[in-house]
């Protein structure tokens, strides 16, 4: 249950730096510990920098996974407050903004967009886009629609592209695939493997997967046996190679470990050390 919202709490949030900062220093305006939400809340370490991202529902989490796999995205800020809403938008005759206030204190809420995303375009220039995500059934409420209309007007005034997405617009299979591989990005931090171990084992695994008709699961298990690794290590390195895009696969289809490794695209690269991978194309 969310506690009372008032001026004192707002000033505390601002002092804590919520909704402020860039990359590692950014702090979302809303944190998981602030209040419960429908669905499952998550704290995830983003691939882009050493920061924990706070997500309040399954749909927020799935959208975030999709952004993690997009190489054109430089930064994702979650729960971004529109501190300057009144200054930018002003009073609205058709929507009574006074209804968006705490029932106990009467203090107005701060509007937020779920994500503010910094993108590098094809021309090399960077720009921001804003995205709000919400379960579709919640859009049946008039107050929710009005709140998003206010947010839309804010970003229109700012000249920032904004869109509202529901679970119906998200490629769920792709999001679940990314969720499955996501923890394997930084194995040197989450396992006993060193960077040298990861490079060495990855090299062997890449060679084993290349143009191999055997099932992926069978190949990763063979690497475990070949290198006397703990069971499942080869599979963990397979996930790691997908996160770093040294291996590519159709992420819009469920990743099936029993399928032939021939469906994989091994990205050509050179590796230094005991093993060098040079794959001809």
Automatic annotation (TrEMBL):
InterPro entries: Restrct_endonuc-II-like, TnsA_C, TnsA_N, tRNA_endonuc-like_dom_sf, WH-like_DNA-bd_sf
GO terms of molecular function: nucleic acid binding
Taxonomy, superkingdom: Bacteria
Pfam families to which the protein is assigned, alphabetical: Tn7_Tnp_TnsA_C, Tn7_TnsA-like_N
CDD domains: TnsA_endonuclease-like
Occurrences of domain TnsA endonuclease N-terminal (ranges): 101-167
UniProt-listed Gene3D superfamilies: 3.40.1350.10, Winged helix-like DNA-binding domain superfamily/Winged helix DNA-binding domain
Residue ranges occupied by any TnsA endonuclease C-terminal domain in the UniProt entry: 169-251
Protein name, UniProt field: Heteromeric transposase endonuclease subunit TnsA
């Amino acid at each position: 249950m969310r506690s009372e919202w008032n001026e004192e709490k707002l000033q505390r949030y601002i002092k804590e730096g919520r909704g402020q900062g860039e990359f590692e220093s950014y702090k979302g305006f809303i944190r998981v510990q602030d209040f419960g939400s429908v669905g499952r809340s998550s704290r995830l370490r983003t691939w882009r920098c050493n920061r924990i991202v706070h997500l309040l529902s399954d749909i927020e989490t799935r959208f975030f996974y999709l952004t993690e796999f997009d190489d054109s995205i430089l930064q994702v800020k979650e729960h971004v407050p529109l501190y300057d809403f009144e200054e930018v938008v002003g009073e609205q005759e058709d929507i009574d903004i006074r209804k968006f206030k705490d029932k106990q204190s009467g203090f107005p809420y701060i509007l937020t967009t779920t994500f503010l995303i910094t993108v590098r375009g094809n021309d090399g220039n960077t720009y921001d886009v804003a995205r709000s995500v919400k379960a579709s059934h919640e859009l049946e409420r008039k107050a929710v629609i009005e709140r998003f209309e206010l947010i839309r007007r804010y970003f229109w005034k700012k000249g920032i592209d904004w869109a509202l997405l529901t679970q119906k617009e998200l490629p769920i299979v792709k999001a679940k695939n990314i969720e499955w591989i996501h923890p394997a990005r930084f194995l040197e931090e989450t396992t006993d493997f060193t960077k040298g171990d990861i490079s060495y084992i990855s090299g062997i695994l890449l060679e084993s997967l290349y143009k191999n008709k055997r099932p992926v699961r069978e190949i990763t298990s063979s690497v475990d046996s070949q290198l006397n690794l703990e069971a499942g290590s080869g599979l963990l390195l397979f996930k790691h190679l997908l996160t770093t895009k040294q291996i590519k696969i159709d992420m819009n289809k469920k990743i099936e470990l029993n399928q032939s490794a021939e469906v994989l695209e091994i990205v050509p690269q050179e590796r230094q050390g005991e093993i060098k991978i040079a794959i001809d194309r």
